[in-house]
Specification:
By secondary structure, the protein is mainly beta. Helices cover 11% and strands 47% of the residues.
Amino acid sequence: MFRSRNCVFFAGITLLALSSCEKNNDDNDHHNPVGCSGVLPAQVTFMVNGSHWCSDMGGFADLGTDLTIHGENQNGSTINMELNDLSTGPHVINSSINHFIYTDAAANGFESNDSNPGSLVIDSHNTSNNTIKGHFTVTLKSPVTGNLTLGSGEFTAVYTE
């Protein structure tokens, strides 16, 4: 009799604890860009050559002199974003400011350049919880294979300092 009361008591406490949980929808949440899923601290997605690209295999963000956001796709391609200006609003992407480097699955490297600058918009930046979100479009240049456009780009990151 004593055991059955304990079981009922602990089952009731467990149900009460589980039913009191609710999703926290404040600004501290980490939201993935459209088309990306996962629990990585940095997520990047964009269109390249008519296909959707997502950092679904790895990603990180680290704030030093600049904010580095890195993403890896399961096909081996990578994106590195070195963001100099973290204030909300529009910014330029080129070879010296907000520099982007993309390496495709065949190891061809592409980088932002001064002759064809891209656009970056920081949508939000919360320095209290180290989160940043934004979107971009940029045409990157390769000395070997020519230009490559990354369009409809989005990113969200939780970074370390």
